[in-house]
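Write out this protein's structure.
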Amino acid sequence: MNKLLLTLASPFVLTSLFAQTYCGTTRYDTVVFPTVTTADSNVVYGLNTTVGGTMDTLKMDIYQPTGDVATQRPLIVMAHGGSFVGGSKKDLVALCTAFAQRGYVTASIDYRLGMGFPPDSIQAMSAVWRAVQDMKAAVRFFRKDAATANVFRVDPNMIFVGGASAGGIMAVHYAYLDKPAEISSTAIDTIALGGIEGNSGNAGYSSKVKAIVNICGAIADTSWIQAGDVAMVSAAGNNDNTVPYCTNTIYLGPYSIMVVHGSGTMVKRMNHLGIMNPIHTFYGQGHSSPGAVLNVDTTIILMSDFLYQQLGCTPPTHPVSYTNTPSCTYFGGYGVNEIILNSENVSLYPNPVSEKFALTLKNVKGNKFSAQIFDITGREVKKISFADKDVVVMRNNIQNGLYFLRITSDAGELFVTKIVFTE
């Protein structure tokens, strides 16, 4: 991925009882500290095993406003880009500095890099999972500090996470891949990887966050975004050929990895659910657009306004406008929002599938049914018709990979879910 203006490996990335203490001044809304202290670099926040089996000491750089005497400050934990195989916490110096100058404590983390070979959807999701676990350990580090030595004077009720490109993907999955039913649909061995919280360090403290910052990120399944989930702010170009803006295949070099749903598609889902999600789309621009010379101010103000609102404050009107009108189309003839697995109506086992799978329809109206399997391009690879609500479907010659299973009934009901075929 290309290095951007803001020294990123890719484009950067509770109205609580304490909220009133953050409002009424220009702090957190504009630059109020001319200098930033970065003496706390290479702070060790955890330790965990890499994909190659070696131990990785996890470090971060912490930025604080110089001369600040506030007893509690909101925190932003950021992660760099680099396709989960490269990049460095040093790529986020400019972004972390910009928000420390506004009064935040900011942290740029390194996290476990690497992906099994050959890269595919399972290897990619495992890399995302490891990275999310590391980010959770970093959040817990600050909560532990707040409860003990209180060196960094962080408000544990006002912790945000975010990132650029791979870091944005990490932040999105941190926030929305958070329920057992969702995790079971990933087709990765999350137990072997350390479970939902992981073993990267600082156990016993919460990893909960207030909201997230997504810069050119994406999610593997929009159904993981549920009503009541935390808010998100996004910036992306709609001609992004690295991380899709809408719904498309993501690649690592020559390898086709999986279908993901980018910022424009996630906004549609979140609008439907009533979750706050301001976005600025850099129309006609690509992956580097949020950090381009003419766009940097817009991206920072977008983030600043959003975070200021999350602190419980009303941001003033700025001379920069941003839009929430993504123009993503439908995928495979049906909306991404329909791609859900409702266990109360449809049971699919096993998933991933090796040779065959059992399909059970429960509480589904109708007497005649059809099941279609589409590949990630929307091409139909298999279709069957049946009348029994319990049926076994053979794999036959379907290749390994991610597919979509679409079930319809003669009563007009429709169910769509993801299905993975493996050896």
